[in-house]
Amino acid sequence: MSEIQVENGRLTVFVPKELDDHTAKEIKEQVDEILNTQWIRTLIFDFRDTAFMDSSGIGMILGRYKKISYSGGKIEAVGMSDRIRRMMILSGLYQVVRLEKKGE
Amino acid sequence: METKKNRMKLEFDSISENESFARVAVAAFMTQLNPTVEEVADVKTAVSEAVTNAIIHGYEGAVETIVILCTISGQELEVTVEDKGVGIPDVKAAMEPLFTSKPELERSGMGFAFMEAFMDELRVDSAPGQGTSVYMKKKIGTVNEWKES
After folding, report:
1. Burial B18-47 (b: 16+ CB within 10 A, else e)
2. Which one of the listed residues B39, B53, B96, B104 is annotated catalytic?
3. What is the CATH number of domain B5-139?
4. Cβ-Cβ contacts under 8 Å, A59 against chain B
């Protein structure tokens, strides 16, 4: 289970150490349950503890974007390593997810 | 000086818990090449993508066998990930970035693109009903770090 925090319409997901197909499925279930029952304006993925991500992470975030954008919500990603940031740029995810600037 | 040679073979069930096992096992095997942290991360990502493809697309969730073959020859690491699953009808199309046959599973379609980005060489052999073999090669110990502008 990933740690999740909800405050004033902001849902923060503290992404686990490794984000792959296996852990992405768990996060998806947890987040969707909240998105289905509460009004969330901003969904934040906090990568400060994440050392590994593959394309399953990209797919999981894109899926949440599709869901939250229906109600005008936004997605942000913070605390990424250079590598994870690069994958978000390579995949085009940066076009729909606000990426925290380096050193922000 | 003699060329360093080594090989290993790994066989495991196609369940998602084994994605992390597979990439960590290959990472452990490659340590004898004295890779940089970046190189290890590159290989781990590529292996994770190939194994995830075998589980989700090759076997479509059924529990079957995935085989990984690794060879070291000098500073070169070769990794082959094989499944005996459904196979890919159009390999060229499948390798296009953002292509996915399973949008309902929220696949990003970036698996092959990441394998290509993080390894030096990528070859995919597949045919419907014949399974899929993903061959990847990477030279370890050559400084090839990307810099963000």
Report:
1. bbbebbbbbbebbeebebeeebbbbbbbbb
2. B53
3. 3.30.565.10
4. 105-110
